[in-house]
Amino acid sequence: MLESVKYLLGSAGPSGFGSKTSAEHVTGYCPDLRSITAIITGATSGIGAETARVLAKRGARLILPARCLKTAEDTKARILSEFPNSDIIVMHLDLSSFNSVRKFVADFHSLNFPLNLLINNAGKFTHEHAISEDGIEMTFATNYLGHFLLTKLLLNKMVETAKSTGVQGRVVNVSSSIHSWFSGDLIGYLGSITRSRSDYDATRAYALSKLANVLHTKELAQRLDQMEANVTVNCVHPGIVRTRLTREREGLITDVVFFLASKLLKTIPQAAATTCYVATHPRLVNVSGKYFADCNETPASKLASNLAEAARIWSASELMISKDPNVLFDPFYGFQS
């Protein structure tokens, strides 16, 4: 109850920020970002677009990967209209395709840019059952597995950049509190919804993908620590964004319900704040493997904090990105509980 009241009031937590803090506010405390190169997935709308806009305002060079280049160019044009000196490059990327991820990384490497910051923000909620070109359920392929492969292929560049510049690299995985809705066998359920349309539940599939984002953060943090790499990885819940509610007015009770619900939602600048905080704030130097909401560290779900499960999903993910789609799930049976 107390936490809900603090959320509604926007009370500051230990970080000094809270649920009502904006992305511009939190980045007002960060160092000049003109030496920073950042890749932000899903930056063509919503939280990702605001994240890109604010980082551009602070001087970062931005790489904006997108499936639709025209939409990304429109985002770039909007940012340039506000900050004309911004350095923004648009590149093609379809996160649901392993081939597209690999081509994007190859194209990025050909630019010979450093890489300080990777924000894995893109996500989709697939209402209808669909399978990616690589034979994986589409929500999982886009929200998690594409980012897993992208991060894996860019990690050496981030480690090298941090070593040569002395500036700590940061990976930010955007998840959701809905990750706590999933329970059960992750790999077993993924196999089942990949093989069978009848087993598919859109909300549970989305929760699975967001749980995988948190587990990826936990395992990658351990691996970076073992490598003694000057790169951190953390995970964020941005909050639920305020949108226009379409409804029939039915009187006082309905008005009260919708008024209270609106107070639980965030504006887009508020929703982008936690991502920008984790990506830029000096307080988070050497902080890794943590989960943040409302710009403050907070516990993830019990399953999301299970290090054995994190190692298990990592091993399964390595198999998924390396096997022929026709036999993709055959090795998975050994991973099921």
From TrEMBL:
The keyword tRNA processing is assigned to this record = no
GO molecular-function terms, A-Z: oxidoreductase activity
**What InterPro entries does this protein map onto?**
NAD(P)-bd_dom_sf (IPR036291), SDR_fam (IPR002347)
Alphabetically sorted, this entry's keywords are: Oxidoreductase
Q: Which Pfam families match?
A: adh_short
Similarity comment: family membership: Belongs to the short-chain dehydrogenases/reductases (SDR) family.
This one is known as: Short-chain dehydrogenase TIC 32, chloroplastic-like
